[in-house]
Design a protein that fits this description.
2 copies of one chain form a homodimer.
Chain A (H helix, E strand, L loop, with lengths): L6 H14 L9 E3 L6 E4 L4 E10 L11 H17 L4 E11 L5 H18 L2 E4 L2 E3 L4 E11 L15 E5 L4 H18 L11 H8 L5 H9 L6 E5 L3 H12 L2 E5 L7 H9 L4 H7 L5 E6 L4 H4 L5 E8 L5 E4 L5 E5 L2 E2 H4 L1
Parallel strand pairs in A: 4-5, 4-6, 10-13
Antiparallel strand pairs in A: 1-2, 3-7, 4-7, 8-11, 8-12, 9-11, 10-12, 13-14, 14-15
Helix pairs in contact in A: 1-3, 2-3, 4-5
Amino acid sequence: MENRTEISEIGEFGLIEHLTKNFEIQNISTIVGVGDDAAVIDHFGKQTVITTDLLLDGVHFDLMYTPLKHLGYKSIVVNLSDIYAMNAQPTQVTVSIGISNRFSVEALNELYEGIYAACEKYGVDLVGGDTSTSKKGMVISVTAIGEVAPDKFVKRSTAQKGDLICVSGDLGGAFLGLTLMEREKKIFLENPQIQPNLEGEDYIVGRLLKPEARRDIIAFFEKNNITPTAMMDISDGLSSEVLHLCKQSNLGCRLYEDKLPIDDRSRAAAFKFGLDPTVCALNGGEDYELVFTLKQEDYEAITINEEIAVVGYMTDPKEGKKMISRGGNLFDITAQGWNAFHA
Amino acid sequence: MENRTEISEIGEFGLIEHLTKNFEIQNISTIVGVGDDAAVIDHFGKQTVITTDLLLDGVHFDLMYTPLKHLGYKSIVVNLSDIYAMNAQPTQVTVSIGISNRFSVEALNELYEGIYAACEKYGVDLVGGDTSTSKKGMVISVTAIGEVAPDKFVKRSTAQKGDLICVSGDLGGAFLGLTLMEREKKIFLENPQIQPNLEGEDYIVGRLLKPEARRDIIAFFEKNNITPTAMMDISDGLSSEVLHLCKQSNLGCRLYEDKLPIDDRSRAAAFKFGLDPTVCALNGGEDYELVFTLKQEDYEAITINEEIAVVGYMTDPKEGKKMISRGGNLFDITAQGWNAFHA
């Protein structure tokens, strides 16, 4: 039988202490960590990068099929992804949690196990935050801090006409994982005797529940002396992000349907669910891949990296934001997806 | 008639743009602000200080008597207070908001008016954050960043035996404001015809709804070359905070009841509500004053500042954590309050 310790037995202050006691500092820039009014970070000669994300129960995650450890891991990763998307290195995080007392201390331990696992993997220090009671549901707020050499950061607004549009990894998997989980949840709610069937779907389930941030791509840039002209991470779907790049850089774009990186396992799942893999890749969110633009002369340098696909190029704004389909037709890219599929 | 714009009419991305469009950067260290994956901050030769706070509807604030503008203002101030409590200067904030769609864009505007007013008053830049839907209630998560010259930051754990314990401003007012508001709310809920009666109670209501962070105290230290040996802000009540200082510095303490700074208007309100002003000062939270310890030789230097009261001194841990009452008796200080009052 599992132990259940009520949060009230430990109290708020005891809880922070309990949850953070085994955490070891990994960055020399971390001067004061958890346990004071604020953390102190030394960033001599570097610029500080900061991002924050709020994850709400029932909106950003569903506790019915999200193990707490995975949730903790993902809540860190999605923030680190934003730091990498600035071409920076994450160094510290703060985590604030609001929880109702229906959660036990053991449940919180699990959540923090995931938080720690992500911090350890990515070499970041947990330096602050708090826990507080919520009336209902769970709230996770993470802020990530990173550092970057002056003027090495990459914004969204600095793409140039003719630049190549590149994507890391593959797209659509997380959305297909979500589709699967929602389908199994519905079946389970209608008939609790039927156990979820996730067989053979490890890949898309993993893409949803345990995403990784693309530290390797930033390291590759560094090693090969490549600086993207613009970059952002893909949390809301490629269409939406490319439209941001276009808008903020005041440009248009062309994407090629046949260049979109889609894993075979995602493609198979899409067909099984009666979905178009292209739509999943364009509009499915939560993949936490990077989309970035590169000067054409950098093309050679990236061909050695199999994790990077060139999917299109930036154009004059007058040419609009379009995708060229496999059949050679031109379609408008929209934030809600590729219009043709909604027609 | 007031306008009501549904949040869905603007959409999430439009919303951030709408809410942040008039915000001007005040700190030269703010290199990239709102509108990218992360903000970029230049802290050459200074250390970065970071703190975060989660404010939850129904737990940390009650929308029934908290105007949204005040709520926005307070959500910034409580974080800046943590930065000042490190003897640092706040420079940037990020704000994430989770809201249900029962709020209109106009309501959010009001909230942001308060956020901006606080940012302007304290000279900090809003550099990031997001808005997202919540299923129920409102969630506000603020992270504040500050800077401090290397080794000028003041922790909680560095008080020394014999150091003076000092408090800024006065205590108990915010708790009395809360008591008043809760009383009027109860009356109103029982009989909606009766309008709240807050006459003559501006002071305590203001202490609750529009607290200020003690930037002036930090400026006074700087000007007079004073460095506290330990410091924290008073958000949970003086008793609780002094116990933190004792625990983290591994010391005991003596407080003097007759030295506790209590405003006459708070004292009058306490008597009206049948409460002991000392209990309110010790255990009432949310005053956002500073409690700090000083070397005895700094005593002379602080006497010129009427906003600072010496309320006791740090002792050997063996002597316990005690308060000497007006009558000369010794009582244990506890986080839930002064034990004598619970007997």
